[in-house]
Specification:
The protein contains 14 helices and no strands. The longest helix has 25 residues. The radius of gyration is 32 Å and the shape is elongated. This is Ankyrin repeat domain-containing protein.
């Protein structure tokens, strides 16, 4: 009799436990959603946190022009706008090193061509220094701000004039709306800088010719009132002086 009561109590406990198990399994309301990450889910990749390792890898790959490593770092979660110790982004490093293929990958990933470093350089602005037409073309799809100013208060066209980058000046005047007569903090336009800081040789002659054809004002003087023609004559740049005299 005692054994029968024990068996009955045991069966009851088992039944209660089974009911609790079923209730726990079905307690959550079925709203049709599945919160489990699916295999190969893109959202899982998008939410992957950025790591210092992937960021450093992206900066290095951009500087070295290693496009495979650039893509790998981006897949690993690296931010296109990560900065090095001098405030330079991967795209700016690629532009400085003229790594065009790497720049194209970064532009396609949404990198900002206007991000400026501690010296106010940006990927677009440094193309005026390097004179790289290929890099300029690679950056145009990113819609850079052509009015963005460097630490001297100048557009990319002004250092291009200084360095005699004729092919670059031609490309920028052809494909952008840059202000050909912008005046920097020194009181110089691209035309004045090409004369004052140029050497009067063939490259700078071509730059002067291109700027004049592009609408540069030959009478726009510096802050001391000295005109481009007066500067050319002072330096003995006869060919440039001739171009200025013949300019309408």
């Amino acid at each position: 009799m005692h054994t029968r009561r024990l068996n009955t109590r045991l069966c009851g406990l088992i039944a209660v436990g089974a009911l609790a198990f079923v209730t726990a399994c079905t307690a959550a309301p079925d709203d049709g959603s599945d919160t489990r990450p699916s295999k190969g889910s893109s959202s899982a990749t998008a939410e992957r946190p950025e790591s210092p390792k992937s960021s450093a890898a992206l900066l290095r790959a951009a500087d070295e022009g290693d496009t495979d490593a650039v893509r790998a770092a981006l897949r690993a979660g690296a931010d296109t706008e990560v900065r090095d110790d001098e405030g330079r982004t991967p795209l700016l490093l690629a532009a400085l090193a003229d790594q065009v293929a790497a720049a194209k990958v970064l532009v396609a990933a949404g990198a900002d061509p206007d991000a400026q470093d501690e010296q106010d350089d940006s990927a677009w602005l440094v193309t005026g220094v390097t004179g790289s037409v290929a890099m300029a073309r690679a950056l145009v799809p990113a819609d850079p701000d052509y009015a963005l100013l460097n630490r001297y208060g100048g557009t990319s066209l002004i250092p291009a004039g200084e360095h005699g980058h004729a092919a670059y000046v031609r490309e920028v005047l052809r494909s952008t709306d840059v202000d050909v007569d912008h005046v920097n903090n020194l009181g110089w336009t691209a035309l004045l800088e090409a004369i004052i800081l140029g050497d009067g040789g063939r490259d700078h002659q071509q730059v002067v010719s291109l700027l004049l054809d592009g609408g540069a004002d030959p009478e726009l003087a510096d802050r001391d009132g000295v005109t481009p023609l007066a500067h050319a004559e002072r330096h003995g740049y006869d060919e440039i002086a001739k171009l200025l005299r013949n300019s309408p």
